[in-house]
Design brief:
alpha/beta; Aspartate Aminotransferase, domain 1; Aspartate Aminotransferase, domain 2; four-stranded mixed sheet; four-stranded parallel sheet; 17 helices; about 45% helix; binds pyridoxal-5'-phosphate; pyridoxal phosphate
Length: about 450
């Protein structure tokens, strides 16, 4: 068993490691928590704490930790062919098999995949593919892609531009041109005075307004997550997606469903689009594709786009060294096989998600909680200072609650004053009970820290 010199590791981390999405100065004052191992739905830190990982890493460890089958898939492939590319008239079995498998799982009109190394690269690919598509259609002026405020599509320049995260846009100069953003369907945050279904239609109508304002001859596509993840598990009202689909169809613009979180079982189907019954032209994927064991992503490409690219596009000058990386593809394929063999999607749909929904909703009675919502194995709690007026705390309470969660033995993430969870899909009912107890204990501790009576 590997032993770690924790304080030395922490010191070296603060000296040399620039962490993603982190205030490094603030982190270095305390030092980071060092995670050393994991099994099932639990992670373990170097100080000996066992912590229930209700975020499945970063929304990705769908199959759970510690699966020897994935270790074996990686090791076997690394011995046979650790790396080769798919550029110059070559391919290899893992990439081919994974492409076939993915297009079998995808809706009928999707029969191709372009591989990448991450969700961000998938969305960079989306931008290039969408613009190329309209160029081939003889409409090169259709370059504008419409995304949403508070959407998340990754952290490369294209990903950050497509996303609507204001703090990301504010750092480091102009984003990619010809990207526009519309309102998000965030009922609790922005539409509470309305009926949710009316609000869903209103939020969708901002797409139509934006198309009219820009002129449809300029608009290439609309991109959105089926359920916003990083934005705070924002579950659109049922009226929203059918109206978005209608608007995209009516104006002939491409629909892109960013499936990086919702894909691979999170909502109890292979893809979130199937849950919402929409028909995207492009579906960026990553995260749960390999359950995070190795980095891999891709774009599932519908026939409308793929046929034109293939038949008339000639060479597409785009690709990554690691597009379809054989070791990553072998792990992704094995991961999908395990999800199938162990009927994990059925487990989510029939057992885990209904049970989680019921138990999660109980947290709505907590004095700090203004709303408890969930869909599939995604959940959110809105922290409020006043349960009647639903007024918010000062900023920072979400971060406090997140830190308290860690101390209590559960990973929840805070998005502003919204606490979110996205546990491994293999979570059992008993483990859901533990998740709820730990979440409640963390809320209690947060309330005590704030001097609020329970
Ligand atoms: C995480 C995420 C991405 C970015 O994926 P990376 O692998 O971090 O580049 C893109 N879209 C969505 C919806 C995500 O949640």
């Amino acid at each position: 068993m590997d032993t770690h010199n924790t304080s030395e590791l922490r010191r070296e981390d603060s000296r040399h490691h620039l962490h993603p999405f982190t205030d490094t100065k603030e982190l270095n004052e305390k030092g980071c928590r060092i995670i050393t191992k994991a099994d099932g739905i639990y992670i373990y830190d170097a100080d000996g704490h066992k912590i229930l990982d209700a975020m499945a890493g970063l929304w990705c460890v769908n199959i759970g930790y510690g699966r020897q089958e994935l270790v074996d898939a990686a090791a076997g492939q690394m011995q046979e062919l650790p790396y080769y590319n798919n550029f110059f008239k070559t391919a290899h079995p893992p990439a081919i098999k994974l492409a076939k498998k993915l297009t079998e799982l995808a809706p009928d009109h999707i029969n191709h995949v372009f591989f990448t190394g991450s969700g961000s690269e998938s969305n960079d690919t989306v931008v290039r593919m969408v613009r190329r598509y309209w160029q081939l259609q003889g409409k090169p002026e259709k370059t504008v892609i419409i995304g949403r405020q508070n959407g998340y599509h990754g952290s490369t320049v294209a990903g950050a531009s497509l996303g609507g995260m204001a703090p990301m846009h504010q750092q480091g100069g102009p984003m990619l041109p010809d990207i526009e953003h519309i309102a998000q369907p965030y009922w609790f945050g922005e539409g509470r005075e309305m009926d949710p279904q009316e609000f869903g239609l209103l939020a969708a109508s901002s797409l139509e307004k934006k198309i009219q304002q820009l002129g449809v001859e300029r608009v290439a596509a609309f991109i959105a997550e089926p359920v916003q993840g990083a934005g705070g598990v924002i579950i659109p009202p049922a009226s929203y997606w059918p109206e978005i689909q209608r608007i995209c169809d009516q104006h002939g613009i491409l629909l892109i469903a960013d499936e990086v979180i919702c894909g691979f079982g999170r909502l109890g189907r292979w893809f979130g689009s199937q849950h919402f019954d929409i028909k995207p032209d492009l579906m960026p994927i990553a995260k749960g594709l390999s359950s995070g064991y190795l980095p891999i992503g891709g774009v599932l490409v519908g026939d409308r786009v793929a046929d034109l690219l293939i038949d008339e596009g000639g060479e597409f000058y785009h690709g990554f060294t690691y597009s379809g990386h054989p070791s990553c593809a072998a792990v992704a394929l094995r991961n999908i096989e395990l999800l199938e063999q162990e009927r994990v999607l059925e487990h989510v749909r029939d057992i885990a998600a209904p049970y989680f929904a019921r138990r999660w909703a109980e947290l709505a009675s907590h004095p700090l909680v203004g709303e408890a919502r969930s869909l599939g194995l995604l959940g959110a709690l809105e922290l409020v200072a006043d349960k009647v007026t639903l007024s918010r705390f000062e900023p920072g309470i979400g971060g406090l609650c997140r830190d308290i969660c860690f101390e209590t033995g559960i990973v929840m993430r805070s998005v502003g004053e919204t606490m979110v969870v996205s546990p491994p899909l293999v979570i059992t009912e008993e483990e859901i009970d533990q998740l709820i107890s730990l979440a409640r204990a963390s809320l209690d501790a947060t309330a005590r820290r704030l001097g609020i009576a329970l």
